[in-house]
Amino acid sequence: MEVCTYSEARQNMAALLDKADRGECIRIRRKDGHLYELRAAIEPRSPLEVEGVDLDVTSEEIVGIVREGRSRYGETE
């Protein structure tokens, strides 16, 4: 964990942000002694935001599968 002064942080902000991106926690100390931490924020993501999977299935095949499933249970279109 790196500790630097406010002045050092201002002069080296880009480098400190790069370190935070790599998971490091940066502490910044002001002249009055207050201490602050700089960390990369975690962006909230939807649980439904997932990578797609290529199943090599056409939309016609999907419609056919849905229709077949509906016909098994007596549902109509």
Largest sheet: 3 strands, mixed
Number of strands: 3
Q: Name the structural class.
A: alpha+beta
Rg, Cα atoms, Å: 27 Å
Proportion of residues in helical segments: 25-40%
Q: CATH superfamily of the domain at 2-38, called what?
A: YefM-like domain
Q: What is the helix/strand order?
A: EHHEEH
CATH class descriptor name of the domain at 2-38:
Alpha Beta
- The number of helical elements comes to 3
Range of strand content: 15-25%
From the spread of the alpha carbons, the general shape counts as: rod-shaped
Enter the CATH topology name of the domain at 2-38: YefM-like fold
Strand order of the largest sheet: 1-2-3
Report the CATH architecture of the domain at 2-38: 3-Layer(aba) Sandwich
Termini, distance in Å?
62 Å
Oligomer: single chain
Poorly predicted ranges: none
| pLDDT averaged residue by residue | 90
Description:
The protein has 77 residues and is of the alpha+beta class. It has a domain at 2-38: YefM-like fold. It contains three helices and three strands; from the N terminus they run E-H-H-E-E-H. The chain has helices spanning 6-11, 13-21, 59-72; strands at residues 2-5, 26-29, 35-38. Strand 2 (26-29) and strand 3 (35-38) form a beta hairpin. It starts with a strand and ends in a 5-residue tail after the last helix. The mean pLDDT is 90.
Indicate the topology.
Elements: E1 2-5, H1 6-11, H2 13-21, E2 26-29, E3 35-38, H3 59-72
Highlighted features:
3 strands, 77 residues, YefM-like fold, alpha+beta, 3-stranded mixed beta sheet, rod-shaped
